[in-house]
Design a protein that fits this description.
The structure is a single chain. The chain is built from 3 helices and 5 strands. Helix 1 packs across helix 2. It is of the alpha/beta class. The chain is about 35% helix and about 30% strand. The two termini are about 25 Å apart.
Amino acid sequence: MMRIMAIDYGDQRTGLAVSDLLGMLCGEAWTVTEWNPERLAEQISREAKSREVGTLVLGLPKNMDGTEGSRANKSRRFAQRLANTAGVPVVLWDERRTTIDAHHIL
């Protein structure tokens, strides 16, 4: 059993959510206001460590046709920085349709 931290990476604010121990339900969600990628990676690393997170999941914004633009490249670079800083696996998650799917679930 391990906690998962989901990360919605943004230029000014980044959304974070941590699962329960089973990795199924969101137990906590908040935003971090930080624009510097290095400081943001350090802050996320501290938050993950304090909550005993075993995996980080970072949203990968793809175009609807599956291609990747500049935002996806930025997310990939941040994922690498985060993996080096946090020392836990970082998984990139295709974000296409996630907002639509969430609205349907609700």
